[in-house]
Amino acid sequence: QVQLAESGGGLVQPGGSLRLSCAASGGFLSIGLMGWYRQAPGKQRDLVASISSGGITNYADSVKGRFTISRDNAKNMVYLQMSSLTPEDTAVYYCNSKDIWYGRSVDSRDYWGQGTQVTVSS
User: Fold this and answer.
1) Percentage helix, strand, coil, to 5, in the chain?
2) Mapping DSSP to helix (H, G, I), strand (E, B) and coil, where does residue 84 land?
3) In sequence order, which residues have a C-beta less than 8 Å from that of residue 44 and are 6 or more positions away?
4) Residue 79 CA to its chain's centroid (Å)
5) What is the pLDDT confidence band of residue 27, given thresholds at 50, 70 and 90?
6) Are strands 77-82 and 67-72 parallel, antiparallel or unpaired?
7) Residue 32 — pLDDT band, cuts 50, 70, 90?
8) Which of 107, 102, 99 is nearest to 50 (CA)?
9) What is the sign of the dihedral through the CA atoms of 48, 79, 116 and 19?
10) Closest by CA position to 45, among listed 95, 107, 99
11) How much is the average pLDDT of 1-14?
12) How far is the C-alpha of 115 from the C-alpha of 122, rounded, in Å?
């Protein structure tokens, strides 16, 4: 199985920036898709951004132009650079992975990290 560990959350003022990191481990060969989701209190968990192993990215409309997702395949890391943060970005941010390759076989289940809190407040 894959283990995902997020870091980098915290308290930031409106207009500020944060960078989230997620480290994946578990003896796999490669990960097809990695991404970030977020869940605010009383709301469902929604996609923020995703990135394929080839670098193709996808963003929620609400974060386009403000957030940038990137990954380092050699280090099995995915990052989320967040800027121009607003109170509406306050949520627990979860790292996600799917399509885990072990040689010729693939595990298509979703794996989740424990989440990291991001609070945007003055």
Assistant:
1) 5, 55, 40
2) coil
3) none
4) 7
5) confident
6) antiparallel
7) very high
8) 99
9) negative
10) 95
11) 96
12) 22
Starting from the edge strand earliest in sequence, which strands make up the sheet with 3-7, in order?
A: 3-7, 18-25, 77-82, 67-72
- Compute the distance between CA of residue 61 and CA of residue 71 in angstroms, rounded to an integer: 20
What does the block give as tokens for 6? 């997020």
Q: What is the pLDDT of residues 64-77, one digit of tens each?
A: 999 999 999 999 99
Longest dimension (CA), the chain: 50
**Strand-pair category, 10-12 with 116-120:** parallel
**From residue 121, how far is each of 14, 16, 38, 86 by CA, in Å?**
6, 10, 17, 8
**How far apart, in whole angstroms, are the C-alpha atoms of residue 105 and residue 116?**
31
What DSSP line would sit under 40-79, residue for residue?
-TTS--EEEEEEETT--EEE-GGGTTTEEEEEETTTTEEE
Q: What is the DSSP string of 85-106?
A: --GGG-EEEEEEEEEEEETTEE
